Amino acid sequence: MSEWPRILVTGADGQVGRAILAEFAGSAEVIPCNRNTLDLSNPDQIRATVREVAPDIIINAGAYTAVDRAESERDLAFAINGNAPGVLAEEAQRASSLLIHYSTDYVFNGSKKGPWGEEDATDPLSVYGASKLAGEEAIRKAGGRYLIFRTSWVYAPEGKNFVLTMLRLGRERDSLNVVDDQFGAPTTAAELARATHAIATGIVTEKFTIANACAGTYHMTCAGSTSWCGFARAIFERAPQLLDGKMPAVNPIAASEYPTPAKRPQNSVLSNEKLQRTFGVHLAPWEAALDEVLAAIASKRRDNEPSHTLQHRPVEN
């Protein structure tokens, strides 16, 4: 493959999808699909879209991500997270295309003391985790050329995510109770997109031979780890200008004190050693990646603020 390929991106309006589009802009022919143009719960529509586009690479950034709601919408979660990746993998194999798919730390039960490796036994605690694991298994069953990237705690300057929720609550409240006994690696959509772009570049230039040893499952998260409470505190400490003069207290609590419909793994820290060894790709430390997102949020906020210049003029008689 001597030239940049045609890339079909699902979930193009989501956090990861938007970052993928931005990262690949100008270096590939990208065909974005959102939920209005491609319903991932419809296998026939998936097959028709892939065959019409005839992509060299499929990047599946689409997913059902409402973790708690999945407990009551099991069929829809499994249709999008479990069945759709298998259909994409079958179509990729039929066309000799490469499938890149994003999975999650929630395929593990969180009981391990150290970072999780790719070969550790999976045991999801929630419908969401089980649906994502089903998607992984469907891809492996279909075979062909594929890369599964498991990631964790994904966020971006836009969308629905922990960072934006904390900033909103921080402006509204004097104190927040945040879980301090669940651990993971906050990972930005931008870092995922950069790593994906680097690996795709290596495949296109034949630096990596994805037909054999490089195909498979990899963990892809920002470096380091923290708790949800530590993450919240870092957000407030690094972006006081986004809190409108407030600095709420962040009180650590146990997960048992904040029950949710879906159970979360206690330890979601993933080892990136295989990714680094195989592709030479290193994602930024989570703190540095957070700074980048907070700066983007601050910039967007400044751009959207109305000018108050006229309000501060002296009154003229």
Automatic annotation (TrEMBL):
NCBIfam families: rmlD
Keywords tagged on the record: NADP, Oxidoreductase
Protein name: dTDP-4-dehydrorhamnose reductase
EC nos: 1.1.1.133
PANTHER family xrefs: DTDP-4-DEHYDRORHAMNOSE REDUCTASE, METHIONINE ADENOSYLTRANSFERASE 2 SUBUNIT BETA
Catalysed reactions, as listed in the record: dTDP-beta-L-rhamnose + NADP(+) = dTDP-4-dehydro-beta-L-rhamnose + NADPH + H(+)
Top-level class of the enzyme under EC nomenclature: oxidoreductase
Originating gene: rfbD
Taxonomic lineage: Bacteria, Pseudomonadati, Acidobacteriota, Terriglobia, Terriglobales
